[in-house]
Amino acid sequence: MKITRRGFVGSIGLGTAAGILSNSNIFSRGAQAATEGSGSAPKVYDGGIMQLTQNESARGPGPKTIQALHDHISKRLGRGYAPDHVDDLRIALAQRHAVANEAIVLATGSGPLLQAGVRAFCTADKALVTVGPTYTTCEQTAREIGAGLKVIRVNDAMALDLDAMAAAAIGAGMVYLCNPNNPTGTVHSAVAIESFVRQVMRDSPATRIMIDEAYIDYVDPSVMQSAKLLAFEFANVFITRSFSKAHGMAGLRVGYAIGQEQTLKALNSAWNLGDINMLAAIAAITSLNDTQHIVEEREENTSIRQFTVAAFHDMGFEVAESYVNHIFVNLRRPASEFRAACLQHSIAVGRDFPPMENTHCRISLGSREEMLTAVEVFRKVLA
Ligand SMILES: Cc1ncc(COP(=O)(O)O)c(C=O)c1O
Known about the structure:
383 residues, alpha/beta, Aspartate Aminotransferase, domain 1, Aspartate Aminotransferase, domain 2, seven-stranded mixed β-sheet, globular, binds pyridoxal-5'-phosphate
């Protein structure tokens, strides 16, 4: 079913769309969810459940990336202990960011880099400063290794409370700053991040700052820019990026960090960052070069987000100002209740995000077709 942009926006509130689960793309889903190309009838790994739960991409990689993957399935895959394309990916990223090759470290997704950061820089005496709510890998790692932990609640606008974070950073091992933030979807401008970094580096020069930009490609550059230049001024600042979001490659596992060589070496020795494989590398290079696809992906996601947010506003619910592929909605009821009700209709929405699990739920944005169906279900279960 093809739904035009106009027809899609025009259908807000009509509740007519047929339920079509888009399983067209095996590469957009991570470990828990994918389809298998066995014979002519692909196996549905998602079990027929619409996945609006893990901030993956419903559309997957762009057509050029899919083509590049097909083109590289050959006997050459039998050779790969020194895999082709992996060095090329690092060089391509260095060129894209206008940095030396040594300023890039690759990982199998950005997740291992988050774990590495906490393991490298936090201890019982050197706390992790993180946010409630934010992406929780750093917090979980801090708990695993018994590191100190300071969780700073987001402000009333659901944005990071940068002043409180800067105060908490004094004497801390590392600050985890997720911009755009997951699950709230909120962003901070380059000016705001620069002023935060300068304050922390002045008041607590030994503290590391990890800036997670996993969702940056969804945001119009007029709203936010990367903080990467700060990583070259301050050795203690580094950036993490992911190909799992706008590039639609969660199932291929590619992430990287940008920072000064000594900081990246510390990450590399603190945790196993994994080995990128040949197909993932060629896909990442192709997607990186296909800048037009990312622009289109951003526009498509923005249109789907506007439709979904408008539907929640129409139902009388507040939504944090999101710029990314998920929204955080104040449903005035526990997320668990909403989750269970949606699951009855074969839709999986986000997990609990303390401290807001009794009021808010995160909903990842699916395809147009999926969101037409999902909004119909949301109207029913929230009525
Ligand atoms: C903010 C943020 N950072 C990092 C990750 C890890 O993603 P990946 O390991 O697929 O790059 C996620 C995944 O959802 C995320 O939301």
